[in-house]
């Protein structure tokens, strides 16, 4: 969401409701992404400014991507085949997006001071009065919807029965927006105003890290993949990875080269006030909404392009390309409970299983997978390893 005050232009805090034309996006994009996953981190624009997505992002289990137009009135939906449609309209600065286990959506209408509850097709179910709601997130173990309130500096929850309660308020909350769970169920909240991220505990909020930026810079949203967090720095035009178990462990993922819309290798790519961010299954793909350009960008090869864990490793795989059975070899045994994942070029989970005994060599049957590029990944607490493969 835009900063209110500081050096942000006046038009950013002038809320103008407008309806924008829909523009289908060529399905050729999805084919074009396949070779990208074979290299280091790459940035690709997957939806341009004609659709005007500049805020929160959400992706459902069927691969549909949803994005808010904060400076407008719509939430848009991008289908796996590239078709774009208006999902919800008539809002006043739509912000965070969440979904419950029944497939029903919740959308924060920021200056409209309400949270909308809508069906999977976008039809209205209910509306809840909440002052200045910003980020939304389904609770780890229930259909309770967690929310942040930007100007009141609060966190709260909306129970399935409609009861609203405040869980945290006051400092260190300072314009809170982002919410994310890591894979162990730990909740994190991020301040838009001072770029600080905190861990939510039973005793309060614990400082984790501050995303880089100037003194008046802001942090858009956060997301999580595995045990790692990712956040967007508006003023640095950059995406950062945060290792929350170490205080202030923050490293650059992509951008930081000044404002722009340059695609390509992450080392030269440019973003324009990156805001919304979403990690998809496996964590090797990130989606980012640029507030300045209204584009949605995709970053692939995240796991192999940045190493912030102490024990990130590369797997040996073969044959590669593979048609039937992939052999995965690690340098040393992995413990029981290790998860083996295969992620496609759009970040969707194509295969997943948990090893019940210690393993060092794994066979993965890929005969049911469509031809294309994938990432195979092993994950256990404090440890991850990945490799790129091609299925013929």
Features:
392 residues, mainly beta, five-stranded mixed β-sheet, 2 helices, globular
Structural write-up:
By secondary structure, the protein is an all-beta fold. It has helices at 28-32, 302-305; strands at residues 42-47, 57-59, 65-68, 75-78, 84-88, 94-99, 105-109, 114-118, 124-129, 133-138, 145-149, 154-158, 164-169, 176-181, 187-191, 196-201, 204-210, 219-225, 228-233, 238-242, 250-255, 264-265, 274-279, 285-290, 296-300, 312-314, 316-318, 325-334, 339-344, 349-354, 359-365, 372-380, 383-391. 2% of the residues lie in helices and 47% in strands. The strands form 8 sheets. It has a 5-stranded antiparallel β-sheet, with no helix packed on it. A 5-stranded mixed β-sheet has the order 26-33-32-29-30, with no helix packed on it. A hairpin with a 5-residue loop joins strand 14 (176-181) and strand 15 (187-191). The longest helix has 5 residues, at 28-32. The termini are far apart.
């Amino acid at each position: 969401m835009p900063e209110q005050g500081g050096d942000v232009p006046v038009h950013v805090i002038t809320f103008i409701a407008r309806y924008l034309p829909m523009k289908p996006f060529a399905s050729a994009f999805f084919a074009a992404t396949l070779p990208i996953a074979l290299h280091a981190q790459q940035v690709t624009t997957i939806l341009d400014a004609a659709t005007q997505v500049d805020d929160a992002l959400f992706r459902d289990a069927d691969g549909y991507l949803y994005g808010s137009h904060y400076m407008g009135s719509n939430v848009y939906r991008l289908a796996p085949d590239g078709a774009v449609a208006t999902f919800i309209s008539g809002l006043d600065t739509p912000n965070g997006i969440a979904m419950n286990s029944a497939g029903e959506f919740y959308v924060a209408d920021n200056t409209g001071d309400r949270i909308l509850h809508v069906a999977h097709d976008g039809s209205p179910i209910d509306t809840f009065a909440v002052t200045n709601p910003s980020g939304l997130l389904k609770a780890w173990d229930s259909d309770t919807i967690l929310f942040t309130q930007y100007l009141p500096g609060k966190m709260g929850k909306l129970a399935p029965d409609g009861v609203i309660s405040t869980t945290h308020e006051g400092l260190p909350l300072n314009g809170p927006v982002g919410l994310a769970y890591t894979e162990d169920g730990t909740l994190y909240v991020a301040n838009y105003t001072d770029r600080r991220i905190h861990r939510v505990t039973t005793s309060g909020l614990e400082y984790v890290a501050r995303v880089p930026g100037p003194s008046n810079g802001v942090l858009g949203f956060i997301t999580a993949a595995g045990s790692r967090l990712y956040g967007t720095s508006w003023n640095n035009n950059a995406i950062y990875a945060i290792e929350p178990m170490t205080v202030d462990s923050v490293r650059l993922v992509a951008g930081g080269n000044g404002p722009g819309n340059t695609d390509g290798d992450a080392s030269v790519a440019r973003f324009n006030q990156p805001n919304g961010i979403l990690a998809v299954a496996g964590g090797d793909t990130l989606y980012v909404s640029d507030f300045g350009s209204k584009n949605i960008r995709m970053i692939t090869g995240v796991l192999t392009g940045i190493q912030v864990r102490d024990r990130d490793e590369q797997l040996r795989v073969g044959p590669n390309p593979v048609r039937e059975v992939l052999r995965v070899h690690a340098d040393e045994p992995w413990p029981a409970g290790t998860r083996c994942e295969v992620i496609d070029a759009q970040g969707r989970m194509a295969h997943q299983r948990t090893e019940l005994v210690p393993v060092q060599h794994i066979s993965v049957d890929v005969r049911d997978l469509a031809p294309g590029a994938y990432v195979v990944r092993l994950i256990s607490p404090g440890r991850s390893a990945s490799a790129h493969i091609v299925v013929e």
